[in-house]
Amino acid sequence: RHEVSDWVSKGLSYLSSDQRLAIELAYGGGHSLEEIAAIMDCPLSTVKARMFHARVKLRNLLPALAGSGVGARDRMENERD
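Given the sequence above, the corresponding structure tokens read:
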């Protein structure tokens, strides 16, 4: 369990600060999308877009962070840019 937590924390560090905050408020804090929009002072559609892009980025990054596949380090560096 500790290993998974470290893995996800590393993945979150690759997100923009807005994406990371939205993900942390939703999954860590249990806030609704409407609540997140109010907390972040932005439209609901912006929260939805940030969540979508954050999940896509994490879906692509997490296998590389786990060390699976050839070129994992290259994929992580490309995501950082």
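The two ends are 29 Å apart (CA to CA). Try to locate this feature in the token string yourself.
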